[in-house]
């Protein structure tokens, strides 16, 4: 008998199944709006100019391939914390930071710290949400409590539901929140809502756990997108910030992430740092270097930093233009039944279209359009060549598939 006899198949991964179907589809006009990655006007992976220039600098430096410190490359940690939190807080030494294996690694490290080292196990997650939160929290030993984040009728944040969940949460509960470009809804809290929410969170003594995977893609401005973080800092709140450079620098395969834990004073930051070191040592020992070195090079070089700013502005502008075209085709060209204004009001990569599972399935099975069954559309997968075709197919399923 095999030692693995007791293993059972896990729940199917819907996203991987869709990606498999996509790879097997030989139709030359297939449309991929499934993956949460940025693509250029030709549907190709986009290499930021800032990254290309930073690669040249690193190549000339003839770096070695030695291990890095367990907590990460110091220059990267400082650069990442400054980008996320601002220079003032970093200088006050109230931040414990650890380099991680992408944003997913940051979320897992933060959940492990809170659940296994602080004994805070109740994680509140607004739905719909990034699916990976749920197994990630479970593996870290936490308990997930769900509440409704999105009002599908009004196509806006269900703020009443969020406040009700907060009101019922016991002290030291953790609230997982997305900084901007909410995945999958594209629908973010307003500054007024953030201000109300953070004040109530401080009053209730719960822990904000902020996922910043898309910082810079909402407005094209890193600092503007970080407004909720500055709001919490201004209120002297303790919180966790999970940072990723997969989207903002296009470093998907390099797994460049960081966990920042903002504490009340430098002594608390020291002990949190030691706990992060202990956890990361047992799981990974050392994080990848190349992407982190690119990130710190860009942050430290004024010319590259300015180029990065231009790159982000360009990405944000293109996403906005694609949304306008989709709205035009659905409302003016095809006069598709329904209200499609939410394609304009939502932000970032994702448009939570409102298509039913049956309509999404029809697009996948019959019309060579690939998207998650919840109707989330990555607008970066659309371009001048395929946007009108895509909208025509949306119009078809809305009229013919219920």
Going by helix content, strand content and strand pairing, the class is alpha/beta
In the sheet with the most strands, the strands line up as 2-10-9-8-7-3-4
- Basic shape: globular
Number of domains: 2
Distance between the termini: 49 Å
Mean pLDDT: 94
Secondary structure tally, helices: 16
| Named CATH topology of the largest domain | Aspartate Aminotransferase, domain 2
Gyration radius, in Å: 21 Å
Largest sheet, in brief, is:
7 strands, mixed
Based on the structure given, which CATH architecture of the largest domain is correct?
Answer: 3-Layer(aba) Sandwich
CATH class (first level) name of the largest domain: Alpha Beta
Low-confidence segments, given as residue ranges, are none
Tell me roughly what share of residues is in helical segments. 40-55%
GO molecular function, one term: L-aspartate:2-oxoglutarate aminotransferase activity
Domain Aminotransferase class I/classII large: 30-392
GO cellular component, one term: cytosol
Catalytic activity: L-aspartate + 2-oxoglutarate = oxaloacetate + L-glutamate
Commentary on this structure:
This protein has helices at 14-24, 49-61, 74-85, 87-91, 102-117, 133-139, 159-168, 191-204, 222-225, 227-234, 266-283, 290-300, 302-333, 342-345, 357-367, 387-400; strands at residues 31-32, 95-101, 122-127, 143-148, 150-151, 156-157, 174-178, 207-212, 239-244, 256-262, 350-352, 369-370, 376-378. With 402 residues, the chain is an alpha/beta fold. The chain folds into two domains: 14-48 and 315-400, Aspartate Aminotransferase, domain 1, CATH 3.90.1150; 67-300, Aspartate Aminotransferase, domain 2, CATH 3.40.640. Strands 2-10-9-8-7-3-4 form a seven-stranded mixed beta sheet, sandwiched between helices. Helix 8 links the parallel strand 7 and strand 8 (207-212). Helix 2 (49-61) packs across helix 12 (290-300) and helix 12 packs across helix 13 (302-333). The mean pLDDT is 94. GO terms for molecular function: L-aspartate:2-oxoglutarate aminotransferase activity; pyridoxal phosphate binding.
């Amino acid at each position: 008998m095999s030692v693995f006899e007791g293993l059972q198949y896990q729940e199917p991964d819907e996203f991987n199944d869709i990606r498999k179907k996509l790879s097997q589809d030989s139709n030359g006009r297939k449309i991929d709006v499934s993956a949460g990655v940025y693509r250029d006007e030709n549907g190709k992976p986009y290499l930021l100019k800032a990254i290309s220039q930073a690669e040249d600098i690193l190549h000339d430096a003839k770096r070695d391939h030695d291990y890095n410190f367990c907590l990460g490359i110091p220059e990267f940690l400082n650069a990442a914390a400054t980008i996320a939190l601002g220079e003032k807080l970093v200088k006050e030494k109230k931040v414990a930071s650890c380099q991680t294996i992408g944003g997913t690694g940051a979320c897992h490290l933060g959940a492990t710290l809170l659940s296994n080292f602080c004994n805070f196990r109740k994680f509140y997650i607004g739905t719909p949400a990034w699916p990976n939160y749920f197994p990630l929290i479970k593996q870290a030993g936490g308990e997930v409590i769900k509440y409704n984040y999105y009002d599908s009728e009004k196509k806006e944040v269900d703020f009443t539901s969020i406040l009700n969940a907060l009101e019922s949460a016991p002290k030291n509960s953790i609230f997982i929140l997305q900084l901007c470009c909410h995945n999958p809804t594209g629908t973010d809290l307003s500054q007024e809502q953030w201000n109300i929410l953070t004040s109530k969170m401080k009053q209730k003594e719960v822990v904000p756990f902020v996922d910043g995977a898309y910082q810079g893609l909402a407005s094209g401005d890193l600092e503007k997108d970080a407004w909720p973080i500055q709001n919490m800092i201004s209120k002297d709140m303790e919180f966790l910030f999970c940072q990723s450079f997969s989207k903002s620098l296009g470093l998907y395969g390099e797994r460049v992430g960081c966990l920042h834990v903002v504490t009340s004073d430098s002594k608390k930051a020291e002990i949190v740092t030691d706990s992060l070191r202990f956890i990361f040592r047992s799981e990974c020992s050392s994080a990848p270097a190349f992407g982190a070195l690119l990130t710190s090079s860009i942050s430290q070089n004024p010319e590259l930093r300015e180029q990065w700013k231009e790159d982000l502005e360009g990405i944000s502008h293109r996403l906005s233009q694609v949304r306008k075209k989709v709205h035009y085709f659905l409302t003016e060209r095809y006069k598709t039944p329904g209200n499609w204004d939410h394609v304009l009001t939502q932000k970032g990569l994702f448009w939570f279209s409102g298509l039913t599972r049956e309509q999404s399935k029809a697009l996948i099975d019959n019309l060579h359009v690939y998207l998650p069954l919840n109707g989330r559309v990555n607008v970066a997968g659309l371009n001048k060549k395929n946007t009108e075709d895509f909208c025509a197919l949306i119009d078809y399923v809305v009229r013919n598939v219920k």
